[in-house]
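Problem: given the chain below (181 residues), write out its structure.
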Amino acid sequence: MRRARPEDAKDITELTCFCFGDLYTTEEEIGRFIDDDRNRLFVIYDDKGLAGSILFLCESKADFMENMEVEPDDFDKISGGKGVLHHKFSVIRKDLRGRGLMTKMLDDALLMLKDEGIFGALFTQGWIKEGTIPMEGIFERAGYKQYKRQIRPWWKYYDRTCNICGGRCKCDAMVYYRPIG
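Solution.
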């Protein structure tokens, strides 16, 4: 696994849009994530192409308070005064699912982030799909803890089609956090 480079943007866009819906992201947006040194976007390739990708976005305390409804005191306590990343997505190719690749990728990414020593915590949102959280086991194995349930956090995106809802996303989310260190 390695940090993404500009030439990976097309592959990452195709895989994330396949997993999350046609308008989840664009190649230009992925390119901006790659170009911003504050973010951490990791990829892994095999002989068939892009096998998986994980994106951690550097966001402000205000962003976490607004988008994930994190309380200010909780944010400060969990972050330990260091930078915080938003674990935006983790995706793997369909033919590789159920083989432990996502868990390994996340373990490797967390180790790289820990070695950097500049980030104190991660927050993420787990999609609640038909009453279950598909990523729950992976998050738990990676040391994430549940923070709170959000009602329709993605409803605000008028132009994105949810691959579960078939239109504007009506899904709920569980917010998770994980201290690094």
